Amino acid sequence: MSTRVLLADDQAVIRYGLRLILESEPDLEVAGEAADGEAAVASVNRLSPDVVLMDIRMPRLDGIAAIRRIVASGASTRALMLTTFDLDDYVFDALRAGASGFLLKDAPPEELVSAVRLVAAGEALLAPSVTRRVIQEFARHPAPARGGGTHGSLTARELEVLLLVARGLSNDEIAAELFLGRTTVKTHVARVLAKLGLRDRVQAVVHAYEHGLVPGDPGRAL
């Protein structure tokens, strides 16, 4: 089945370009377009796309507020945030709001297509140019550590996996670090996300830093 994508951007020329790129792929389908945040939320509710490509800065309702509403509604649609600036001050709020990824608008077409597929498959990503900055920002300015009771349901191994995810290790790297099979690591990651009510790996990173589980410089990228 095709992955259905909603395009949410206030610039018609941007939406047109995104549509041309995505519809050239046999497994991707543009389900609709929205020119502002309010329309994006309404379109997600009406069309139930797999992924929404959401501009951060839009009229009526910005992309971050729109994502908060979409997540709060319980929709399964995953959000890939788009911006022109790799130093966008809003990227941190976007990730906390529930975005599954962050990509620059000037990314090559093949990178955009790959990003949509990854997010639709339940993965998460950040543009390489901002990944290290994002994680280091959480490390530099962590939220006050919250009660540890929220992690009581995790086994010792699952907590260990969560900390490695927060450091930015891939499943293969975690497997090598812990001398486990890749499938076993994937199962642990899935259980961690389910137990903590997290959507994806990006949210796991945010969660770990905001709860004070990963002090200091993470030193790695997602």
Question: Which features does this protein show?
Answer:
6 strands, Rossmann fold, 49% helix, Arc Repressor Mutant, subunit A, 10 helices, alpha/beta, 2 domains, 222 residues
Number of domains: 2
DSSP summary: helix tally: 10
The overall average pLDDT, rounded, is: 82
Q: What class, by secondary structure content?
A: alpha/beta
Q: Which homologous superfamily in CATH is the superfamily of the largest domain?
A: Response regulator
Strand arrangement in the largest pleated sheet: 2-1-3-4-5-6
Order of helices and strands: EHEHEHEHEHEHHHHH
Q: Total strand count, please? A: 6
The helicity comes to 40-55%
Taking Cα atoms only, what radius of gyration do you get, to the nearest Å? 17 Å
The largest pleated sheet is described as: 6 strands, parallel
| End-to-end gap | 29 Å
CATH architecture type of the largest domain: 3-Layer(aba) Sandwich
Name the CATH class of the largest domain. Alpha Beta
Shape: globular
Could you tell me the CATH topology label of the largest domain.
Answer: Rossmann fold
Report the sheet-strand fraction.
Answer: 5-15%
What ranges have pLDDT less than 50 throughout 5 or more consecutive residues?
A: 145-149, 216-222
Describe the structure.
With 222 residues, the chain is an alpha/beta fold. It has two domains: 3-126, Response regulator (Rossmann fold), CATH 3.40.50; 141-210, Arc Repressor Mutant, subunit A (Orthogonal Bundle). 49% of the residues lie in helices and 14% in strands. A six-stranded parallel sheet has the order 2-1-3-4-5-6, with helices on both faces. The model is unreliable at 145-149 and 216-222 (pLDDT under 50).
